[in-house]
Amino acid sequence: MGMPVPVPGVMGLPHFVVEIELQGSTPSRFILEGSEAHHLTRVLRLGPGDLVRLVDGRGGIAVARIVGEQGQAVALEIVETGRPQEDRLPVDIIVGVLKGERMDWLIQKATELAVRAVHPVLMEHTVVRMDSKRASGRLFRWRQIARQALKQCRGLVAPVVYPVIALEEALSETPRSAAKMVFWECEGEQDLVSAWREQACAVPVTLVIGPEGGLSSAELQSCRGAGFRTASLGRRTLRAETAAIAGIAVLGALMEWREGGRG
Q1: Which architecture, in CATH terms, is 15-82?
Q2: What is the pTM of this model?
Q3: Where are the strands (E) in the chain, listed by range?
Q4: Which CATH number does the domain 91-259 belong to among 3.30.70.1230, 3.40.50.920, 3.40.1280.10, 3.40.190.10?
Q5: For the chain (length 263 residues), average pLDDT per consecutive 10?
């Protein structure tokens, strides 16, 4: 997995997520606009000469100096760039689309916990119904939420949030996952940790989480047919978003523990 190695001496600098790619042919000067510019000048009250830490959400990291304001925008000059970093967990989630703010919350918290990818899927018991236009709008919103959460948690790489597809299609697109688990409320013998250990604690890991109404019998069989092992998160039946976040947190803690040579 590997922990990030930031540009030396800049961890305490104000942290901003930018649209430009901070790798390769990054321009020495560029204009910061929109909400990030407003936060820099009006909230933090930074000005010419102040340094800020920039990330592009794809692993690029840099330090920039504020040159000056241009109306509602801010001119920045790159003074140092670092090598591309990866600070996500090797954990992907396939999750049934949840209603409104519950899905937004899941995306936000999954980003904070450094999940690698989110695959929103439509299932038999999915309450949300959407046409292509609505799905496109929700995808744009989820990706914006992920970038905002990345800034809040001072992360380097945002999760990949994929377009909404059917469960079967998502299952077919995870052949490279080394460990696969599906949360099932009726699983009474195997918890998440034991299910992962039975797969030699391999990475990456893919988790399947059903929607509000859970997985249907046919969907559960499809997951099993694709190599997913059923797993429990305890005696209580959890909301879908709670199960997703709990699963990511448990795996993240175990991966950090193993990386430190303690397990």
Answers
A1: Beta Barrel (2.40)
A2: 0.88
A3: 15-17, 29-32, 51-55, 61-70, 73-82, 91-96, 117-122, 160-161, 165-166, 179-183, 205-209, 229-231
A4: 3.40.1280.10
A5: 45 86 77 90 92 92 92 91 89 94 96 97 86 88 96 95 94 83 92 95 95 92 96 92 97 87 56
